[in-house]
Amino acid sequence: MEQYVLPVVFFLGLGAVIGILLTIASKVFFVKTDETVQKITEALPGANCGGCGYSGCAGYAEAVAAGKAPPDLCNPGGPAAAEKIGAILGIEVQGRERQVAFIRCNGSCDATEDKFTYIGTRSCTATERFYNGKGVCRTRCHGMGDCAAVCDNGCISVLNGVAVVDPTNCTGCGKCVKACPNELIVLIKASQKTMVRCRSVDTGKDTRRICKNGCIACGMCVRKCPEQAIVINNNHAEINTGQCTGCGICASVCPVKCITELGCNV
User: Fold this and answer.
1) How much is the pLDDT for 265?
2) What is the pLDDT of residue 97?
3) What is the DSSP letter of 114?
4) For 65-74, how does the pLDDT look when each residue is reduced to its tens digit (9 = 90+)?
5) Stretch(es) of the chain classified as CATH 3.30.70.20
6) At CA 160, angle to CA 266 and CA 256, rounded to 5?
7) Pick the CATH number of 35-89 from 1.10.15.40, 3.40.630.30, 3.20.20.70, 1.10.287.70
8) For a tag site, which of 14, 58, 103, 133 has the least CB within 10 Å?
9) For residue 124, which phi and psi values (nearest 5 degrees)?
């Protein structure tokens, strides 16, 4: 009988000792949790997208609690999260307007062509390494879907060779912005009415030759804009969203129709 009792007693004693040691260790190495950080973290959506410039929601919460970051940087959380954080901090916060992704290209398969047949890895980043992509337009959307692959909300799809954003569920996290090797994607205010769907750096003559939908930098939109919100930069038109009132005049006078009135479809 002793051959069974002694091992049992030994392991019970060993378990008790280990339990005591773990209890002591938990007290010695206990790290006090900052309740403010915890509350701020709970107020955030938990997307951990990095769009705020921090590693994740916890990192951003720590920065806000320490006064090193403003409480309204979370695009996925929007104004609602900013207001909750303001209440936690005891300050009034007016959240920034929700942002959504916009793709500055309308170079569909009907508008432009490829200069060679690409059969490598199906990735925009991979095809960009081959002579600035497979398209005759070097700033064109490659249509391989790198942006769609990183979108957690399924807001991006590739239609007729070019990526398109459905703004309905877009949280403005910015993952797609980082994923695009041609820097075609930007974040804009959800209320923005007009944008240029092109960022060609070629001259107007060359752009007209390689893409039917490309901006030819004619300057008509610049001359007609009553708010002087448009400039020609690097051979394509750019709209100052802070000055734009969404009157739509620029879209109506654009000869190639590369200026888009957004409405419901960003």
Assistant:
1) 46
2) 86
3) B
4) 999 999 999 9
5) 99-261
6) 65
7) 1.10.15.40
8) 14
9) -60, -40
77 class by beta-carbon count within 10 Å (0-12 exposed, 13-18 middle, 19+ buried)? buried
Query: Of 201, 217, 205, which Cα lies nearest the Cα of 258?
Result: 217
**Contact call for residues 181 and 147 (beta carbons, < 8 A):** no
- For residue 27, the model assigns a pLDDT of 64
pLDDT at position 264 is 46
Q: Is residue 51 within 8 Å of 175, Cβ to Cβ?
A: yes
For the stretch 39-78, pLDDT in tens is 999 999 888 888 888 888 999 999 999 999 999 999 888 8
Whole-number Å distance between alpha carbons of 142 and 137:
10
Q: Where are the alpha helices (DSSP H) in 122-233?
A: 124-128, 146-150, 175-179, 204-210, 220-224
Comparing CA positions, the residue from 185, 218, 174, 190 lying closest to residue 73 is 174
All CATH 1.10.15.40 domain ranges in the chain, comma separated: 35-89
Quickly tell me which residue has 């309204």 as its tokens.
Answer: 72
Structure token digits, residue 22: 């773990």
* Domain formed by 99-261, architecture: 2-Layer Sandwich (3.30)
